[in-house]
Amino acid sequence: MSEERSLNFLEEIIEEDIRNGKNDGRVHTRFPPEPNGYLHIGHAKSICLNFGLAQKYNGQTNLRFDDTNPEKEETEYVESIKEDVKWLGFEWQNELYASDYFSQLYDFAVMLIRKGKAYVDDSTPDQIAEQKGTPTEPGTPSPWRDRSVEENLLLFAEMRDGKYQDGEKVLRAKIDLASPNMHMRDPIMYRIRHAHHHRTGDAWCIYPMYDFAHGQSDSIEKITHSVCTLEFIPHRALYDWFIEELEIFPSRQYEFARLNMTYTVMSKRRLLQLVNEGFVNGWDDPRMPTISALRRRGYTSASIRDFCDRIGVAKRENIIDVSLLEFCVREDLNKTAWRRMAVLDPLKLVITNYPEDQEEIFVGENNPEAEDGEGSREIPFSRELWIEREDFMENPTKKYFRLGPGLMVRLKHAYIIKCDDFVKNEQGDITEVHCSYIPESKSGNDTSAIKVKGTIHWVSTRHAAQVEVRLYDRLFKVEDPGAEGRDFREYVNPESLQVIPSAYIEPDLASAVPGKGYQFIRKGYFTLDKESAPGQLVFNRTVTLKDTWAKEVKKG
RNA sequence: AGUCUUGUAGUGUAAUGGUACCACGUCAGAUUCUGGCUCUGAAAAUCUAGGUUCGAACCCUAGCAAGACUACCA
User: Fold this and answer.
1) Per CATH, is A9-258 categorized as 3.40.50.620?
2) Exposed, middle or buried, A167 (CB in 10 Å: 0-12/13-18/19+)?
3) Fewer beta carbons within 10 Å, N or C terminal of chain A?
4) Which pLDDT score, from 0 to 100, does residue A330 have?
5) Is A268 a catalytic residue?
6) How many angstroms separate the CA atoms of A437 and A350, rounded?
7) Within 7 Å: CB of A163 and strand B?
């Protein structure tokens, strides 16, 4: 009945907690992006994980913007993040901001000062770094470490009231300067920044650090399972310390390995560089691994969710082959995309025994993968057609199943034709192929008894519309452009974008709908780009079809 | 250097002391009015060395390797 699917380590923890009645069996997660950039496929993993866990255990998920650094955060990013999460198919319980808690956080800080667990430090950043010591040597106390509670209270209030310049003072937790965990060596809780915040405006000039905001925000929201990535492991001790000292709801932090993918980079810093230095045309350039770029390129949200499901969740570092993502989108689009014909690299084909003024209308089903075919469209046929240049070979090799002198193929949805002749220009380029058709071989009504190995797609020249097509390839030439010791920018693939200014499409495609995936038969999956205008359509190639012939050719 | 985390086919990911599972990828074949889809099959893995045990991917010890941390970023 119930297919027993093994649990990932987080599901095991949660089920154990539920068994033990922890938090009354309640599961509440959160997705906590900092609004300082666009979401990428790595965030999608985290989103699917956090929302998925809550869904599975009848819990809830908050969307919380971790906006404690006014200098980097902007409303533009908040909006794009919300759009992406929604598009991925998830609904958050509450839309919250760490900045909503600034006042509460301030009170928490005062509590710690009163307990003698925090102090105002006048040291400079360099001095504080110096005081930290090294992993093998303990740190040294700041000269301001033993100020009285009263003095600390006064100074902290003055910090809040704007009496000091940026960087003049900080509030530090008083923990353990000899801890092997560097994060416990009197970490900074608050810094002074006279900066405008995207939500609180100029109400504050002191801002809490991540460590003094994140865990407390979780706690305030009664988050039960706070899931983050591996690099926060050393922060967990501090996370727990603040919760314990403050005696607030004990949220717990768990860490998993972030997603890495071949032939791309994933850090916001590098993504920002690609945009700023012009390697791509913006955050949603279809070559980017951002959610908005994948969407624009034609990836479906279902395929991304499926991908996140397949890659699993664990604690070991990983680098997922991008071909898995491509598999997921092909699998989804194969089931849903409507089939259409388009010729990307046109070569003229003349059917010499087909009357000049004759036309026929053939009918092609929209989706052969659906039982009912999802309806059909009409495809006009005439004496002159565009076919793909690669579908004709002057001296065909033995396993070539397409056109060549004397060879026969079927024109998809139409007739079987035989190649009688071809025309070359002075440069030796083939400019025209001449064929004759077999009238009895009409699609759906074939009495010719002729068997052909190949079927090719085509578009009637008289009825074709012209469009621009953009073919995308991997953004980088190497599997791991971000590896240690290399400048990823040197590995950008110069052929990652190939623009075809005029490809030919069958008439029905002229009314293509934005956001819908189409399969250009034998060529791949495509979708309308946002830069399309009426009569000036632009199609993005989402992904090619699997191409075993190309592999054959490569092998020689 | 110290602390922490992690080592299973090419890439991911299961097996929780008892036949090393599955997927992607790769290779071979069948089918096909898409060289797609679908179907069949194949090759391919427990970091190393000891120990405990009838039996170890799993437990213990010691190595080795990779990654993280030493920001007034998150």
Assistant:
1) yes
2) exposed
3) N
4) 98
5) yes
6) 10
7) no
